[in-house]
Amino acid sequence: MTPTEILIVALVGGGTFFGFVAVVGIIRLPDLYTRAHATSKSDTLGIVLTLGGVALVFGADLAVAKTALLGLFLFVTNPTAAHAITRAAYDQDITPWTTEGEE
After folding, report:
1. Which pLDDT value is given to residue 46?
2. TM segments (predicted)?
3. Per the count of CB atoms within 10 A, which of 2, 3, 60, 86 is most buried?
């Protein structure tokens, strides 16, 4: 394997790992606020890493510019959307999970 192919595999593998972490966060975490935090951070990093691998596969082409713009768009909008969702939940008085009352 060439160094470029190794980097592509590493980026896509890292993106897959962080996508898996986001899925585990949705399943395992107790409330909306912690789930939104886990998914917005992990999913954003996973998507950016995967798109980096895709850009390397395409090489120097117009598709790389489109992939970079898509990555930038997702890098900005994913955390912003998660913040808007959690802010709306907070405004509707959805209480966060706490450890009070647990023995």
Report:
1. 93
2. 6-27, 48-76
3. 86
User: How is the chain split into domains, by residue range?
Assistant: 3-91
| Amino acid present at 87 | R
- CA 31/CA 94 separation, integer angstroms: 10
End-to-end Cα distance, the chain:
54
Q: How many CB atoms lie within 10 A of CB 85?
A: 15
Task: Tell me the CB-side half-sphere exposure of residue 4, using CA atoms within 13 A.
Answer: 6
Token look-up 């980097």 returns: 7
Question: What does the pLDDT look like over 8-50, one tens digit per residue?
Answer: 999 999 999 999 999 999 999 989 999 998 888 899 999 999 9
As a whole number of angstroms, the distance between CA 32 and CA 30 comes to 7
| Cα angle for residues 36, 13, 45 (degrees, 5° grid) | 30
The rounded distance, in Å, linking the Cα atoms of 35 and 80 is 15
Could you tell me the pTM of the whole model? 0.82
